[in-house]
Amino acid sequence: MRKFDTTLYFITDSTGLEEAEFLRRVDEALKGGATLLQLREKDKTTREYMSLAEKVHDIARKYDVPLIIDDRVDVALAVKSEGVHLGQSDMPVNIAREILGEKFIIGATTKTVPQALEAYEQGADYLGVGAIYPTTTKVKTVLTPVETLDAICKSVPIPVNAIGGLNETNTHVLEGVGIAGFCVVSAIMKSQDPRAKAEILLEIAKKLVRKS
Question: d(Cα 114, Cα 96) in Å, to the nearest integer?
Answer without folding.
Answer: 19
